[in-house]
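Appendix B, Record 12. Input sequence as logged:
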Amino acid sequence: DPATMRAPAELLAAVRAIAPSFEPTAMQYLQPTGPRAAVRVWGQDESAVAPRARGGFVVVDPYSARIVNRDSLPGQQSAANTVISSFFALHMASFAGDPVKWLYFVLGLAGAWLFYSGNLLWIESRRKRGAEPPRRTRWMAAATIGVCLGSVCGISATIAAAKWLPGLVADVAAGHRALYYAVFFTAIGWAFWRGSARGSVQLLWVAVVLTAAIPASSLLGVLAPGLGPWPTASAAALGVDLTAAVGALLLAW
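Logged structural output:
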């Protein structure tokens, strides 16, 4: 009977008793009326390795507040689980707080730039030979421009639309996917139609507009809060807006 379940505060208190440095962020109820009812209390512990990108979790019985499983609780995993979690942490940057996340962000941009610029240098070296580049080289150039800049345009478009989609579509996640892939494949088609030289400049300007739309959307929410279901302003959201503004300026340059 769900009416006999312990209050969420009691479940959190049970978790805090075994892990004082663990900061809960979410409670995931699993089969609450079934024979194996459980609650995953998700959270972060900056002093330990997290087994998932969103942190770690401890499993609690919602009816007795008994700790059922702590194999995924940061700082209290077995040696084997800690080794496995370290791979997740290295992949997802779920350790050492925000400085490491920013470092991964910069390294990710560097890797993307290495791929993009490397392909363009390879194509340009063949163009400078003087002869008309073969069809495969032209296709490689168009694909490089379309895929790389299409990704930037699609990501910027879906982030800019994040404040609007909840009021426009029932399935927000599906709306994000549809918007991203519509922009992505349109950019690829445009690059093949216009060619890499003209298409790159045009798609860069599209990327400028869509990336600048991220802080512009937030600014519009401040100036006209009745337009949509605007979330409460936060330092994290401001960080996204400022990063997008810098990105738009760099793309324009």
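The first helix runs from residue 8 to 18.
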